[in-house]
């Protein structure tokens, strides 16, 4: 599993019930459908259908009395059905059936400019539709966003975790969803546990959370018939790339670099008020957390690099290899050398995070050269 920098507060995620609207057994009012398949969304609302009923066969979707989607199969997710904001009559039927044969029907209320998932969950005899608003706001570079949704009708309360880790939320009942959480993009192992027994109900190894994507993980099917499974749906969002130099940890040495395994964020000159002696050389600094143990970083060859912004070529401008003597507190300070230079131009301090030994805190300090107009003063000899 790659290094992860979790945004503060995303380890314990409060449940969000307001965004889940369960529809079952409502009457269908006839009308004229204004839905259209589309991949873009400007000011309208949009709904993506998720088929999560194992054994139900293909389904059709009626919106405002007209067919909007034909033949969606289990575990499939549709594209956007673009609709005007407001209330719409919604019905799910077995393919070829009329709205009178709906397995779930009711009124949905859509907000302007919002995307939703309409997840068909439960069983063919007891179907529901969960309406979940999608967070499609921009993400920072290197970040992904994810959420888990409970759609297994007979699973009781489930507890989602990173495999071998702590709970990601309070227990999820049928139709519940976690809040979205931002995380470093990569591949992660999830596990879904029975809240009562602690037994694993479903393992989700190597789940991809891509950069610049909002990913929803729907837990669907049933425990009793072994159809429990996950439907993973992702939509791309804009990536807000902040200009500036940034630091990364890479495997290998400066001369023989390997893959980037952790992003440490921006390395920039302090943005506050200038104080003290004027015209001193500037130092760029940054701090990041990587979910890589300190033991791993010193056990094999790793190095820390600082790179230019992509717009400036993305070249490595400084590198420091992780190795040396530990301090009395167990931290490690290493030198960084600018590209093409022979003397250090900065330092990096690495130490295990106090709250999580599997996480390493990394502070980067990089000299940027003399400040404009810097002059070397001649000391005044003592008098007398």
Describe the structure.
- This protein is mostly beta strands and 384 residues long.
- It folds into two domains: 21-239, no CATH class; 246-272 and 279-367, no CATH class.
- 2% of the residues lie in helices and 47% in strands.
- The protein has one helix and 28 strands.
- The protein has one helix at residues 294-299, and strands at residues 21-23, 36-38, 45-51, 59-63, 66-72, 80-83, 86-94, 104-110, 115-122, 127-133, 139-140, 143-150, 158-162, 181-184, 186-194, 200-209, 213-220, 229-236, 239-240, 246-252, 257-266, 268-269, 283-290, 302-307, 316-321, 332-338, 344-352, 360-367.
- The protein has a nine-stranded antiparallel beta sheet with strand order 21-20-24-25-26-27-28-23-22. Strands 1-10-9-3-6-2 form a six-stranded mixed beta sheet, with no helix packed on it.
- The longest helix has 6 residues, at 294-299.
- The chain is elongated.
- The chain starts with 20 loop residues before the first strand and ends in a 17-residue tail after the last strand.
- Mean pLDDT is 83; it is low at 1-34 and 370-384.
């Amino acid at each position: 599993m790659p290094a992860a920098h979790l945004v503060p507060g995303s380890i314990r995620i409060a449940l969000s019930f307001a965004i889940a609207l369960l529809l079952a057994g409502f009457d269908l009012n006839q009308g004229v459908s204004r839905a259209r398949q589309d991949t873009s969304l400007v000011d309208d609302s949009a709904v993506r259908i998720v088929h999560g009923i194992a054994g139900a066969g293909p389904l059709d979707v009626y919106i405002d009395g007209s067919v909007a989607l034909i033949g969606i199969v289990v575990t499939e997710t549709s594209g956007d059905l673009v609709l005007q904001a407001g209330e719409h009559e919604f019905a799910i039927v077995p393919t070829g059936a009329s709205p009178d044969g709906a397995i779930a029907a009711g009124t949905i209320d859509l907000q302007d400019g919002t995307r939703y998932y309409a997840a068909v969950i439960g069983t063919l005899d007891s179907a529901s539709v969960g309406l979940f608003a999608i967070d499609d706001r921009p993400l920072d570079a290197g970040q992904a966003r994810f959420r888990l949704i409970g759609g297994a009708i007979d699973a009781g309360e489930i507890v989602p975790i990173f495999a071998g880790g702590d709970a990601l939320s309070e227990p999820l009942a049928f139709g519940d969803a976690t809040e979205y959480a931002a995380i470093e993009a990569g591949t992660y192992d999830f596990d879904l546990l029975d809240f009562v027994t602690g037994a694993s109900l479903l393992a989700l190894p190597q789940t991809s959370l891509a950069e610049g994507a909002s990913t929803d993980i729907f837990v669907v099917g049933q425990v009793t018939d072994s159809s429990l499974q996950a439907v993973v749906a992702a939509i791309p969002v804009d990536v807000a790339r902040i200009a500036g130099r940034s630091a990364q940890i890479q495997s290998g040495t400066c001369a023989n670099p390997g893959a980037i395994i952790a992003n440490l964020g921006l390395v920039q000159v302090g943005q506050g008020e200038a104080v003290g002696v004027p015209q001193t050389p500037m130092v760029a600094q940054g701090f990041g957390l990587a979910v890589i143990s300190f033991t791993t970083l010193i056990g094999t060859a790793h190095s820390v690099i600082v790179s230019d912004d992509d717009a400036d070529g993305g070249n490595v401008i400084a590198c420091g290899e992780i190795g040396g003597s530990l301090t009395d507190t167990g931290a490690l300070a290493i030198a960084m050398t600018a590209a093409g230079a022979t003397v250090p131009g900065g330092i990096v301090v690495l130490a295990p995070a106090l709250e999580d030994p599997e996480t390493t805190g990394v502070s980067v300090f990089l000299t940027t050269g003399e400040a404009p107009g810097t002059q070397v003063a001649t000391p005044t000899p003592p008098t007398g």
